[in-house]
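Colleagues,

For the teaching module next term, I've prepared a clean inverse folding example: a structure given as tokens, and then the sequence designed for it. I'd like students to try predicting residues themselves before seeing the answer, so please don't circulate the second half yet.
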């Protein structure tokens, strides 16, 4: 008596989960691409985990808290790891609306991806748009970064002002010393008039040429 009932349930379940059936979703996984040498084989255990994650997501939806793993049906599983799935409502023998399933998957997309070590590009729900990852908060608060940048700019500006002041002071000291050296050379220079050197006197008063001195000026009075 139980065998006919079992075959009937199996036939109904097979009819509910078919490619392009109403409320059915296709999934494609690229495990080798994502994990390379660490890729795992897709088997019945992985299928069970997928059903569990879908059931977990559906239980987050209001009025779907009673969803069980057995309510998630998989069909047309291929070796390249693609398949179709539906979520059923056993009490009414029909699949749950695609809108509810899509909403549940989108809300828990990151949890599903992490369960299989994949992401939105390597675990694709072909009829469900990818969700944007939540923005990651920086380890250091933004205001500290801004304060650090401003502080560095202020320190740099102060350093440049100090170096500029030192450079200008050195230039002034150098120019002053050059002027003083030029004046010293001018004072010690020997003046020659008519081919006869004469001893310098005050620069402003000129110099004294012995060739034009008279006898009285040459002789030193006693």
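(Answer key — instructors only)
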């Amino acid at each position: 008596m139980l065998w006919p009932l079992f075959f009937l349930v199996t036939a109904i379940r097979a009819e509910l989960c078919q490619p392009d059936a109403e409320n059915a979703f296709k999934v494609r996984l690229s495990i080798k691409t994502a994990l390379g040498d660490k890729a795992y084989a897709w088997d019945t255990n992985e299928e069970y985990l997928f059903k569990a994650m879908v059931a977990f997501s559906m239980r987050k939806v209001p009025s779907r808290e009673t969803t069980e793993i057995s309510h998630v049906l998989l069909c047309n599983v291929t070796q390249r790891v693609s398949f179709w799935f539906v979520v059923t409502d056993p009490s009414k023998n029909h699949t749950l609306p695609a809108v509810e399933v899509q909403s549940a998957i989108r809300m828990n997309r990151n949890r599903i991806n992490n369960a299989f070590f994949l992401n939105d590009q390597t675990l694709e729900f072909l009829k469900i748009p990818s969700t944007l990852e939540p923005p990651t908060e920086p380890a250091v608060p933004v205001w500290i970064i801004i304060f650090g940048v401003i502080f560095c700019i202020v320190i740099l500006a102060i350093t440049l002002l100090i170096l500029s002041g030192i450079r200008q002071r050195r230039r002034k000291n150098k120019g002053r010393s050059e002027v003083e050296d030029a004046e010293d050379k001018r004072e010690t220079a020997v003046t020659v008039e008519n081919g006869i050197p004469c001893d310098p006197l005050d620069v402003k008063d000129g110099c004294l040429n012995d060739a034009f001195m008279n006898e009285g000026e040459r002789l030193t009075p006693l």
